[in-house]
Amino acid sequence: MTATVIELDQDGPAAILRISGDITSASEADLGAAYGLAVANGAKAVILDFSKLEYMNSGGIGLLVTLLVRAQRGGGRLVATGLSDHYRQIFELTRLDEAIEIIDDEGAAVVAATA
Amino acid sequence: MVETRKAGPVTADAPNKRSDANWAKPVDRLSAAGVAGARDDAVTGKRVSGPLQGFGQLWQKSFTVRLDGVDTTPEAVIATWKAHFPEFWPKGQRFYAPLSGIAPGEVALLEIEPVPGAPVRLSTGVLVLYADEESFTFMTPEGHTLSAWITFSARRDGGVVVAEAQALERPSDPFDDIAYKLGGNRQNNKFWEATLRNLAIMVGVPTPVVDIHVTCIDGNRQWRYWSNVRNSATLRSARRTMTSPIRWITRRG
């Protein structure tokens, strides 16, 4: 397993969580903490950048559901960018794409997230 | 502002654990063509329906059992679980595995007795969404009483292997939600507790203890999914039960 690394890029109401390595159920604490920090710093929309994701298992997908619920409860939005074709298909298969918008271009994702 | 956080140790990659082939291929509608033995197929033609597409509150449930005193590995426990999956289910509940076994993309059919002695047996199924050497995950189809993912896994905790079933679930429609509140939730917990206990006994734990943790992740109901009732396995199975004498007569005629 490759360690999860999450970098937070924030500019006002939009925050980007740049995810690299693996996302599994073991990533819960760090993903949650990074999200919490973004929201504490005023983010209304959080963009999950998966461009450096190496692997995600079903535990990782489950984390995205709980993160999504947390965002919705706080009136925020989640947007996904940088998904490979494989993980875009996983989002479609699990119907996660019905709740988390997927936008390939990061700039466009920031615009959409803060619209 | 950029901050970097790291989590977890870096361990050697195990190829089987990190393969795209561990995931089911994209599918629009499910097919249970590879399943034999079930009396009814309520899954073919249905879409998957996960915890984001259910009506009721969202619950996260974790059932864990420590395999104390057993010399085994997480991989061996999962191999046993996959190979003997139906045998761990409580009496009265049936799991019809696909002929090729529990593997990504396969569909299994279920016959569930909602309460012991109930005259109606629910026919539904699951898609094997994900499977690797240490875990496998099912996703429910439209019509199942729950819109859910459930992951079966094994891991090392110190010197002991721990087996776990973890579910993210919502009752699928308003009727399922009522049934869930009126005892379905409790029945569901007993089901998985018994399953974990049976697994532990098979691998050699004489008196296993199952720990249960249940958390409401989202207390809101998703009213836009009230129409899930049109696919309800409960109503379908009730209709089939009521019309079975007519179908029997028709077949004989």
Give an overview of the whole structure:
The complex is a heterodimer of chains A (115) and B (253). Chain A has 115 residues and is α/β, with parallel strands linked by helices. Chain A has a single domain, classed as STAS domain (Transcription Regulator spoIIAA). Chain A has four helices and five strands, in the order E-E-H-E-H-E-H-E-H. In chain A, strands 1-2-3-4-5 form a five-stranded mixed sheet. Chain A is globular and about 35 Å long. The model of chain A has no long low-confidence stretch (mean pLDDT 93). Chain B contains three helices and nine strands; from the N terminus they run ββαββββββαβα. In chain B, a hairpin with a 2-residue loop joins strand 7 and strand 8. Chain B is α+β, with helices and mostly antiparallel strands and 253 residues long. Chain B has an eight-stranded antiparallel sheet with strand order 3-4-5-6-7-8-2-9. Chain B has a single domain, classed as START domain (Alpha-D-Glucose-1,6-Bisphosphate, Chain A, domain 4), CATH 3.30.530.20. Chain B is globular, with a radius of gyration of 19 Å. The interface between A and B is large, with 43 and 43 residues. Strand 1 of chain A pairs antiparallel with strand 1 of chain B.
